[in-house]
UniProtKB/TrEMBL annotation:
Gene Ontology MF terms in the entry: O-acyltransferase activity
UniProt keyword list: Transferase
Protein known as: Maltose O-acetyltransferase
Statement: the UniProt record of this protein carries the keyword Hydrolase: no
Family under the similarity heading: Belongs to the transferase hexapeptide repeat family.
Pfam families: Hexapep (PF00132)
Cellular component GO terms held in the UniProt record: cytosol
Length: 179
């Protein structure tokens, strides 16, 4: 009875945290064993059971829907008699990294410093510093210096960082000719 009640409380806490802001998500994940550096922004708490196998450096942004998978369940499911074991791996994220919406990070993944992972990418392996990573399977598609140049010349570049929401909306409507 006590175990069932604990499961209900844990599920309720996870639900509340999933609907909360970044700071609360970070506190929750740290309590679960995830190593998270300073000045991070986290919108996803989807980490498989082995939270202690995930670490993030400083100034890391995790967009909504990102999933961290630290084990390969197919090995123990399909080869239970032969292997009698599970397959696990760490996920390490360097400093100054942005992980795009709905990406999946698989076991044994290391992302270097100063990287972008594009939305929806399926990431496994070791990726060097200063990389733009995207795709399924994910691969390095650009250096960060090239991505920065693309941002600077983008027709969608809008100076909104110091604006409040109403001013941002007004600027975007004007730029894109929306009444």
């Amino acid at each position: 009875m006590i175990m069932k009640l604990k499961k209900i409380v844990d599920s309720l806490e996870r639900f509340v945290v999933s609907k909360s802001g970044s700071e609360r998500k970070i506190k929750y994940l740290r309590r679960q064993g995830v190593k998270i550096g300073e000045r991070c922004f986290v919108q996803s708490i989807f980490i498989s059971n082995e939270h202690f196998l995930v670490e993030m450096g400083n100034h890391v942004a995790i967009a909504n829907g990102v999933r961290f998978i630290t084990h390969d369940g197919s090995a123990s499911w399909l080869f239970r008699e032969e292997l009698d074991a599970g397959i696990f791996g760490k996920i390490s994220i360097g400093n100054d990294v942005f992980i795009g919406m709905s990406s999946i990070l698989l076991p044994n993944t290391t992302i270097g410093n100063n990287c972008i992972v594009g939305a929806g990418s399926v990431v496994r392996g070791k990726f060097p510093d200063n990389s733009v990573i995207m795709g399924n399977p994910a691969k390095v598609v650009l250096k960060m210096s090239a991505q920065k140049l693309l941002y600077k010349v983008s027709p969608g570049l809008c100076k909104t960082l110091d604006l409040n929401l109403p001013d941002t909306i007004a600027l975007l409507k004007e730029k894109f000719s929306i009444e």
